Protein backbone atom coordinates (compact mmCIF):
# COMPACT_ATOMS: atom_id res chain seq x y z
CA UNK A 1 0.00 0.00 0.00
CA UNK A 2 1.64 3.21 -1.21
CA UNK A 3 1.57 6.28 1.01
CA UNK A 4 2.27 9.60 -0.67
CA UNK A 5 3.90 12.59 0.94
CA UNK A 6 1.14 14.82 -0.46
CA UNK A 7 -2.30 14.38 -1.95
CA UNK A 8 -3.39 17.48 -3.89
CA UNK A 9 -7.15 17.71 -4.35
CA UNK A 10 -8.13 19.69 -7.42
CA UNK A 11 -6.69 19.92 -10.92
CA UNK A 12 -7.14 23.63 -11.62
CA UNK A 13 -4.15 25.94 -11.69
CA UNK A 14 -3.90 26.07 -7.89
CA UNK A 15 -3.63 22.28 -7.74
CA UNK A 16 -1.31 21.80 -10.71
CA UNK A 17 1.01 24.65 -9.66
CA UNK A 18 1.20 23.33 -6.10
CA UNK A 19 1.69 19.73 -7.22
CA UNK A 20 4.50 20.80 -9.53
CA UNK A 21 6.30 22.83 -6.87
CA UNK A 22 5.94 20.10 -4.23
CA UNK A 23 7.39 17.60 -6.70
CA UNK A 24 10.31 19.95 -7.35
CA UNK A 25 11.05 19.79 -3.63
CA UNK A 26 11.35 16.00 -3.85
CA UNK A 27 7.99 15.01 -2.39
CA UNK A 28 5.91 12.14 -3.78
CA UNK A 29 2.66 13.72 -4.94
CA UNK A 30 -0.69 12.42 -6.18
CA UNK A 31 -3.05 14.92 -7.79
CA UNK A 32 -6.76 14.08 -7.84
CA UNK A 33 -9.26 15.72 -10.21
CA UNK A 34 -12.86 14.58 -10.49
CA UNK A 35 -13.24 14.82 -14.30
CA UNK A 36 -10.88 14.95 -17.26
CA UNK A 37 -11.87 18.43 -18.48
CA UNK A 38 -13.68 20.19 -15.61
CA UNK A 39 -15.86 23.28 -16.04
CA UNK A 40 -13.63 25.06 -13.56
CA UNK A 41 -12.66 28.65 -12.80
CA UNK A 42 -9.33 27.93 -14.53
CA UNK A 43 -11.10 26.70 -17.67
CA UNK A 44 -13.29 29.80 -17.97
CA UNK A 45 -10.92 32.43 -16.66
CA UNK A 46 -10.30 35.57 -18.71
CA UNK A 47 -6.58 34.84 -18.34
CA UNK A 48 -5.77 38.29 -16.97
CA UNK A 49 -2.73 39.06 -14.81
CA UNK A 50 -3.45 42.37 -13.00
CA UNK A 51 0.03 42.98 -11.66
CA UNK A 52 -0.84 46.63 -11.07
CA UNK A 53 -3.45 45.77 -8.44
CA UNK A 54 -1.44 45.50 -5.22
CA UNK A 55 -2.72 47.63 -2.33
CA UNK A 56 -0.42 46.55 0.53
CA UNK A 57 3.18 45.41 0.98
CA UNK A 58 1.96 41.78 0.88
CA UNK A 59 -0.15 42.06 -2.30
CA UNK A 60 2.42 44.33 -3.96
CA UNK A 61 4.99 41.61 -3.41
CA UNK A 62 2.68 38.93 -4.80
CA UNK A 63 1.97 41.05 -7.88
CA UNK A 64 5.67 41.60 -8.56
CA UNK A 65 6.57 37.96 -8.00
CA UNK A 66 3.57 36.78 -10.00
CA UNK A 67 4.33 38.73 -13.16
CA UNK A 68 8.05 37.88 -12.92
CA UNK A 69 7.08 34.21 -12.68
CA UNK A 70 4.76 34.35 -15.70
CA UNK A 71 7.34 36.07 -17.87
CA UNK A 72 9.54 32.97 -17.52
CA UNK A 73 6.94 30.26 -17.02
CA UNK A 74 6.76 28.93 -20.57
CA UNK A 75 10.50 28.31 -20.52
CA UNK A 76 10.46 26.77 -17.06
CA UNK A 77 7.55 24.42 -17.77
CA UNK A 78 8.61 23.69 -21.37
CA UNK A 79 5.10 24.52 -22.57
CA UNK A 80 3.61 27.62 -24.16
CA UNK A 81 1.38 29.56 -21.73
CA UNK A 82 0.70 32.19 -24.45
CA UNK A 83 1.94 34.93 -22.13
CA UNK A 84 1.74 38.48 -23.48
CA UNK A 85 1.56 42.04 -22.25
CA UNK A 86 -1.99 42.77 -23.40
CA UNK A 87 -2.94 45.83 -21.36
CA UNK A 88 -6.41 46.52 -19.97
CA UNK A 89 -9.04 49.22 -20.40
CA UNK A 90 -11.23 49.71 -17.36
CA UNK A 91 -14.39 51.35 -18.64
CA UNK A 92 -16.08 54.11 -16.65
CA UNK A 93 -19.87 54.07 -16.84
CA UNK A 94 -21.45 57.05 -18.59
CA UNK A 95 -23.16 58.08 -15.34
CA UNK A 96 -19.98 58.03 -13.24
CA UNK A 97 -17.43 60.80 -12.60
CA UNK A 98 -14.15 59.87 -14.33
CA UNK A 99 -12.07 61.98 -11.95
CA UNK A 100 -13.58 60.34 -8.87
CA UNK A 101 -13.10 56.86 -10.33
CA UNK A 102 -9.47 57.64 -11.21
CA UNK A 103 -8.92 58.97 -7.67
CA UNK A 104 -10.16 55.68 -6.21
CA UNK A 105 -7.33 53.91 -8.07
CA UNK A 106 -4.58 55.82 -6.26
CA UNK A 107 -4.58 52.98 -3.68
CA UNK A 108 -2.93 50.66 -6.22
CA UNK A 109 0.83 50.33 -6.64
CA UNK A 110 0.67 51.28 -10.34
CA UNK A 111 -1.41 54.33 -11.19
CA UNK A 112 -3.68 54.24 -14.25
CA UNK A 113 -3.82 56.67 -17.14
CA UNK A 114 -7.22 58.35 -17.38
CA UNK A 115 -8.49 58.37 -20.98
CA UNK A 116 -11.24 60.49 -22.47
CA UNK A 117 -14.08 58.81 -24.36
CA UNK A 118 -12.36 59.60 -27.66
CA UNK A 119 -9.02 58.25 -26.45
CA UNK A 120 -10.64 55.08 -25.11
CA UNK A 121 -12.47 54.46 -28.39
CA UNK A 122 -9.28 55.07 -30.34
CA UNK A 123 -7.59 52.43 -28.21
CA UNK A 124 -10.59 50.08 -28.59
CA UNK A 125 -12.79 50.95 -31.61
CA UNK A 126 -15.42 48.33 -30.68
CA UNK A 127 -16.49 50.35 -27.61
CA UNK A 128 -19.80 52.21 -27.63
CA UNK A 129 -18.83 55.85 -26.89
CA UNK A 130 -22.30 56.57 -25.48
CA UNK A 131 -21.86 53.83 -22.86
CA UNK A 132 -18.78 55.30 -21.19
CA UNK A 133 -17.54 58.51 -19.60
CA UNK A 134 -13.93 57.51 -20.18
CA UNK A 135 -11.61 54.67 -19.23
CA UNK A 136 -8.54 53.83 -17.18
CA UNK A 137 -5.58 52.27 -18.97
CA UNK A 138 -3.17 50.00 -17.13
CA UNK A 139 -0.44 47.49 -17.97
CA UNK A 140 -1.80 43.97 -17.76
CA UNK A 141 -0.47 40.52 -18.46
CA UNK A 142 -2.43 37.78 -20.17
CA UNK A 143 -2.12 34.00 -20.54
CA UNK A 144 -4.17 31.15 -21.89
CA UNK A 145 -5.25 29.48 -18.61
CA UNK A 146 -5.97 26.13 -20.25
CA UNK A 147 -2.55 25.95 -21.86
CA UNK A 148 -0.87 27.15 -18.66
CA UNK A 149 -2.64 24.52 -16.60
CA UNK A 150 -1.67 21.83 -19.12
CA UNK A 151 1.96 22.99 -19.04
CA UNK A 152 1.98 22.73 -15.24
CA UNK A 153 0.38 19.29 -15.36
CA UNK A 154 2.86 17.91 -17.89
CA UNK A 155 5.85 19.36 -16.01
CA UNK A 156 4.46 17.85 -12.79
CA UNK A 157 4.24 14.42 -14.42
CA UNK A 158 7.76 14.69 -15.84
CA UNK A 159 8.96 15.13 -12.25
CA UNK A 160 7.25 11.88 -11.26
CA UNK A 161 3.95 13.33 -10.05
CA UNK A 162 0.92 11.07 -10.49
CA UNK A 163 -2.58 12.05 -11.63
CA UNK A 164 -5.85 10.20 -11.05
CA UNK A 165 -9.19 11.25 -12.50
CA UNK A 166 -11.41 10.35 -9.57
CA UNK A 167 -13.84 12.34 -7.44
CA UNK A 168 -12.90 12.75 -3.80
CA UNK A 169 -15.84 11.61 -1.68
CA UNK A 170 -14.35 12.31 1.74
CA UNK A 171 -11.18 13.18 3.61
CA UNK A 172 -10.02 10.39 5.91
CA UNK A 173 -8.72 10.95 9.42
CA UNK A 174 -7.58 8.93 12.40
CA UNK A 175 -8.34 10.90 15.54
CA UNK A 176 -6.72 14.33 14.97
CA UNK A 177 -4.57 13.34 12.01
CA UNK A 178 -5.42 13.20 8.29
CA UNK A 179 -4.59 9.85 6.71
CA UNK A 180 -5.73 10.23 3.11
CA UNK A 181 -8.88 10.41 1.02
CA UNK A 182 -11.68 8.19 -0.19
CA UNK A 183 -12.55 8.58 -3.87
CA UNK A 184 -15.30 7.01 -5.95
CA UNK A 185 -12.80 4.26 -6.79
CA UNK A 186 -10.58 3.59 -3.78
CA UNK A 187 -8.71 4.90 -0.75
CA UNK A 188 -5.44 6.81 -1.11
CA UNK A 189 -3.07 7.31 1.82
CA UNK A 190 -0.83 10.31 2.44
CA UNK A 191 1.01 12.17 5.16
CA UNK A 192 -0.47 15.49 4.02
CA UNK A 193 -3.54 16.71 2.15
CA UNK A 194 -3.69 19.98 0.21
CA UNK A 195 -7.22 21.09 -0.58
CA UNK A 196 -7.19 23.06 -3.86
CA UNK A 197 -10.78 22.32 -4.85
CA UNK A 198 -11.90 25.94 -5.33
CA UNK A 199 -15.62 26.42 -4.76
CA UNK A 200 -16.03 22.83 -3.55
CA UNK A 201 -13.40 23.19 -0.82
CA UNK A 202 -15.80 24.60 1.78
CA UNK A 203 -18.18 21.63 1.63
CA UNK A 204 -15.34 19.09 1.52
CA UNK A 205 -13.78 20.47 4.70
CA UNK A 206 -17.11 20.92 6.47
CA UNK A 207 -17.79 17.18 6.17
CA UNK A 208 -14.94 16.49 8.58
CA UNK A 209 -15.80 19.33 10.95
CA UNK A 210 -13.54 22.10 9.64
CA UNK A 211 -15.22 25.49 9.20
CA UNK A 212 -13.43 27.92 6.89
CA UNK A 213 -14.34 31.41 5.77
CA UNK A 214 -14.13 30.34 2.16
CA UNK A 215 -17.02 31.06 -0.18
CA UNK A 216 -17.80 30.92 -3.90
CA UNK A 217 -19.68 32.64 -6.65
CA UNK A 218 -21.44 30.99 -9.56
CA UNK A 219 -19.74 32.82 -12.44
CA UNK A 220 -21.38 32.86 -15.87
CA UNK A 221 -19.98 33.92 -19.24
CA UNK A 222 -20.29 33.38 -22.98
CA UNK A 223 -17.45 31.75 -24.88
CA UNK A 224 -17.30 32.22 -28.65
CA UNK A 225 -15.45 30.19 -31.27
CA UNK A 226 -12.50 31.92 -32.99
CA UNK A 227 -13.78 34.96 -34.90
CA UNK A 228 -12.24 37.44 -37.35
CA UNK A 229 -13.42 40.46 -35.36
CA UNK A 230 -10.48 41.87 -33.41
CA UNK A 231 -10.64 43.13 -29.80
CA UNK A 232 -7.47 45.10 -29.12
CA UNK A 233 -7.35 44.93 -25.33
CA UNK A 234 -8.91 43.33 -22.30
CA UNK A 235 -12.09 45.20 -21.32
CA UNK A 236 -13.35 45.31 -17.74
CA UNK A 237 -15.41 47.81 -15.73
CA UNK A 238 -13.48 50.24 -13.53
CA UNK A 239 -16.02 49.64 -10.77
CA UNK A 240 -15.99 45.86 -10.37
CA UNK A 241 -19.25 44.87 -8.72
CA UNK A 242 -17.97 41.34 -8.05
CA UNK A 243 -15.61 42.60 -5.37
CA UNK A 244 -18.45 44.40 -3.59
CA UNK A 245 -20.58 41.26 -3.92
CA UNK A 246 -17.85 39.15 -2.32
CA UNK A 247 -17.44 41.62 0.53
CA UNK A 248 -21.17 41.64 1.28
CA UNK A 249 -21.60 37.88 0.98
CA UNK A 250 -18.69 37.09 3.33
CA UNK A 251 -19.91 39.20 6.25
CA UNK A 252 -19.98 37.14 9.47
CA UNK A 253 -23.75 37.44 9.73
CA UNK A 254 -24.19 35.52 6.47
CA UNK A 255 -22.22 32.41 7.46
CA UNK A 256 -25.41 30.70 8.63
CA UNK A 257 -26.96 31.25 5.18
CA UNK A 258 -23.97 29.63 3.47
CA UNK A 259 -24.66 26.47 5.47
CA UNK A 260 -28.27 26.24 4.31
CA UNK A 261 -28.88 23.91 1.37
CA UNK A 262 -30.44 26.31 -1.15
CA UNK A 263 -29.99 29.97 -0.34
CA UNK A 264 -29.13 33.08 -2.34
CA UNK A 265 -26.89 35.11 -0.05
CA UNK A 266 -27.07 38.49 -1.83
CA UNK A 267 -28.52 39.57 -5.21
CA UNK A 268 -26.48 38.77 -8.35
CA UNK A 269 -24.32 41.30 -10.21
CA UNK A 270 -23.09 41.72 -13.77
CA UNK A 271 -19.66 43.08 -14.73
CA UNK A 272 -19.67 43.47 -18.54
CA UNK A 273 -16.36 42.89 -20.26
CA UNK A 274 -14.44 40.71 -22.64
CA UNK A 275 -11.09 39.38 -23.75
CA UNK A 276 -9.88 37.77 -26.94
CA UNK A 277 -7.33 34.96 -26.92
CA UNK A 278 -4.53 34.38 -29.41
CA UNK A 279 -6.59 31.91 -31.45
CA UNK A 280 -9.36 34.51 -31.89
CA UNK A 281 -11.99 33.13 -29.47
CA UNK A 282 -13.56 35.45 -26.92
CA UNK A 283 -14.82 35.21 -23.38
CA UNK A 284 -17.64 37.67 -22.64
CA UNK A 285 -19.14 38.17 -19.21
CA UNK A 286 -19.51 38.01 -16.37
CA UNK A 287 -22.56 37.44 -14.22
CA UNK A 288 -21.90 36.39 -10.59
CA UNK A 289 -24.30 34.79 -8.10
CA UNK A 290 -23.83 33.76 -4.48
CA UNK A 291 -25.84 30.57 -4.19
CA UNK A 292 -25.05 28.33 -1.21
CA UNK A 293 -25.58 25.16 -3.22
CA UNK A 294 -22.57 24.60 -5.52
CA UNK A 295 -24.80 22.48 -7.75
CA UNK A 296 -27.74 24.91 -7.86
CA UNK A 297 -29.52 25.00 -11.22
CA UNK A 298 -29.20 28.23 -13.20
CA UNK A 299 -31.46 29.40 -16.03
CA UNK A 300 -28.88 29.40 -18.80
CA UNK A 301 -31.10 31.02 -21.44
CA UNK A 302 -32.10 33.91 -19.20
CA UNK A 303 -28.52 34.45 -18.08
CA UNK A 304 -27.21 34.43 -21.64
CA UNK A 305 -29.81 36.99 -22.68
CA UNK A 306 -28.85 39.25 -19.78
CA UNK A 307 -25.15 38.94 -20.62
CA UNK A 308 -25.75 39.72 -24.30
CA UNK A 309 -27.77 42.84 -23.43
CA UNK A 310 -24.94 44.16 -21.27
CA UNK A 311 -22.34 43.42 -23.95
CA UNK A 312 -24.55 45.02 -26.60
CA UNK A 313 -24.54 48.25 -24.60
CA UNK A 314 -20.77 48.31 -24.08
CA UNK A 315 -19.32 46.46 -27.09
CA UNK A 316 -22.13 46.31 -29.69
CA UNK A 317 -20.26 44.35 -32.43
CA UNK A 318 -19.67 41.45 -30.01
CA UNK A 319 -23.22 41.01 -28.73
CA UNK A 320 -24.57 38.68 -31.40
CA UNK A 321 -21.48 36.60 -32.06
CA UNK A 322 -22.15 32.86 -31.92
CA UNK A 323 -21.18 31.54 -28.53
CA UNK A 324 -22.02 29.17 -25.71
CA UNK A 325 -23.05 30.03 -22.15
CA UNK A 326 -20.86 28.48 -19.47
CA UNK A 327 -20.86 28.38 -15.69
CA UNK A 328 -18.22 27.66 -13.05
CA UNK A 329 -17.51 28.21 -9.35
CA UNK A 330 -15.06 30.91 -8.25
CA UNK A 331 -13.74 30.69 -4.68
CA UNK A 332 -13.10 33.79 -2.57
CA UNK A 333 -12.13 34.63 1.00
CA UNK A 334 -13.56 37.15 3.45
CA UNK A 335 -10.67 39.61 3.12
CA UNK A 336 -9.47 39.36 -0.52
CA UNK A 337 -6.34 37.46 0.60
CA UNK A 338 -5.59 33.84 -0.32
CA UNK A 339 -6.35 31.16 2.24
CA UNK A 340 -3.03 29.36 2.33
CA UNK A 341 -1.59 27.26 5.11
CA UNK A 342 -2.23 24.67 7.77
CA UNK A 343 -5.68 24.04 9.21
CA UNK A 344 -5.40 23.87 12.95
CA UNK A 345 -8.04 21.31 13.97
CA UNK A 346 -6.60 18.29 12.20
CA UNK A 347 -2.92 17.64 11.55
CA UNK A 348 -1.87 17.15 7.95
CA UNK A 349 -4.59 19.18 6.19
CA UNK A 350 -3.72 22.36 4.32
CA UNK A 351 -5.73 24.83 2.29
CA UNK A 352 -4.60 26.53 -0.92
CA UNK A 353 -7.58 28.48 -2.24
CA UNK A 354 -9.59 31.72 -2.14
CA UNK A 355 -7.35 33.71 -4.48
CA UNK A 356 -8.70 37.06 -5.69
CA UNK A 357 -6.16 37.00 -8.55
CA UNK A 358 -5.69 33.26 -8.90
CA UNK A 359 -3.67 33.17 -12.11
CA UNK A 360 -1.30 35.86 -10.85
CA UNK A 361 -0.88 34.74 -7.23
CA UNK A 362 -0.99 30.93 -7.45
CA UNK A 363 2.40 30.40 -9.19
CA UNK A 364 4.54 32.38 -6.71
CA UNK A 365 2.58 31.19 -3.69
CA UNK A 366 2.97 27.57 -4.80
CA UNK A 367 6.75 28.10 -4.80
CA UNK A 368 6.67 29.61 -1.31
CA UNK A 369 4.34 26.92 0.03
CA UNK A 370 6.45 24.05 -1.28
CA UNK A 371 9.67 25.46 0.19
CA UNK A 372 7.84 26.07 3.48
CA UNK A 373 6.53 22.47 3.42
CA UNK A 374 10.12 21.33 3.02
CA UNK A 375 11.11 23.03 6.26
CA UNK A 376 12.20 26.47 5.08
CA UNK A 377 11.15 29.48 7.15
CA UNK A 378 8.92 31.59 4.97
CA UNK A 379 7.70 35.01 6.00
CA UNK A 380 5.10 35.18 3.24
CA UNK A 381 3.35 31.95 4.24
CA UNK A 382 3.52 33.10 7.86
CA UNK A 383 1.64 36.29 6.90
CA UNK A 384 -1.08 34.25 5.24
CA UNK A 385 -1.48 31.72 8.06
CA UNK A 386 -4.96 31.66 9.54
CA UNK A 387 -6.88 30.12 12.42
CA UNK A 388 -10.43 28.73 12.32
Automatic annotation (TrEMBL):
InterPro entries: FAD-dep_OxRdtase (IPR006076), FAD/NAD-bd_sf (IPR036188). Residues 5-372 form the FAD dependent oxidoreductase domain. Keywords: Oxidoreductase. It comes from the Bacteria. One of its GO terms (molecular function) is oxidoreductase activity. Signal peptide: none annotated. One of its GO terms (cellular component) is cytoplasm. The keyword Oxidoreductase applies. Gene3D superfamilies: D-Amino Acid Oxidase, subunit A, domain 2 (3.30.9.10), FAD/NAD(P)-binding domain (3.50.50.60). The keyword Oxidoreductase applies. This is FAD-binding oxidoreductase. It comes from Lusitaniella coriacea LEGE 07157.
Amino acid sequence: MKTYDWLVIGGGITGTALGYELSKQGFSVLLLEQVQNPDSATRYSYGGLPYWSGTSPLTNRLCREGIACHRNLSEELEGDTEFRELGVLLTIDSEDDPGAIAESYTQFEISPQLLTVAEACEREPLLNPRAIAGALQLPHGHINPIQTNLAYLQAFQRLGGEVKIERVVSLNRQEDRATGVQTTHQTYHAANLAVCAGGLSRALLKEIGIEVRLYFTHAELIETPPVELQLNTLIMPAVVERFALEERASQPGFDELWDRPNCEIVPPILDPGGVQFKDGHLCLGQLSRTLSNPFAPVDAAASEEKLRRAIAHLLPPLAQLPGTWHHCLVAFSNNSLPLVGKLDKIEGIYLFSGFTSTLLFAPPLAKHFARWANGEDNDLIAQLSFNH
